[in-house]
Amino acid sequence: MNKAELDPDASPAAEFGAYLRSSREARGWRQEDLANAAGCSPTHISALENGHRPPTPKTARKLDRAFGLDRVFLNKAIDARSTVLLEGFGQYVEKESKARELRLFDLGIVPGLLQTEDYARAIAAGAVRRGSITQEGADDRVAVLARRQANLRRVPPPLIHVVLDESCLQRPVGGPRVMADQLDALDAFAALPHTLLQIAPLAIGEDRAFDLPINILTLPNRALMSYAESAQQGHLERDSDAVLPLLTSYYQLQGLALSQAESVARLSQLRKELP
Q1: What is the DSSP letter of 259?
Q2: Could you name the CATH architecture of 89-113+155-273?
């Protein structure tokens, strides 16, 4: 395959392959040279670079050793494996790491960026029990989430607006201790100088602006991007004009939601009600 035919945005595997190819060529290595260093076949390297074969953690660790890197290829492989089913999510995460402002809405569960590790592991464990992912896949999800959360602690941090549907707090996850720690984490999040946390009461009813989780990013050049997903499909919108109506709906939702002070009081009430 010619270089021009490989589109890094085509899939997570293609993005991994493009990075692998550029890393190899920067060293002046042929595919055979990298294959010898990594302990695999040139055919395998070619399939990875062309996006024909998704990377596995085992192969990624071999590549890290070959290049003398610490988890660079492993992290990229985990990202590729975790986003392969949801179109656009890999590109969204890359932009999320650079955004100046994030606006999040979620319902049913606390959004990943605000989840404690135990809460995230409980959600992943439920997916394993249902047979929708493997234990390895669950571990990958938690690892990806931890890196996304760490990136939001960069300096200076982005402004983060979060509206939680009340259903996020009414659904018990992981038992009372896990829920107590999660509520404490939300309270701590609300206290940060660059965040705003609001709860959208169920009483809003049909006036709630969104029926699916949605994330809206403001990028460094002030362009807008949104990402929404269902259980089986993700949609990334890069056109700022198309995102503007969503941003307006988000502002309307914030107007109907509890204030941050009222939301924090609600968290405290729920914390006291736990057994």
Answers
A1: P
A2: 2-Layer Sandwich (3.30)
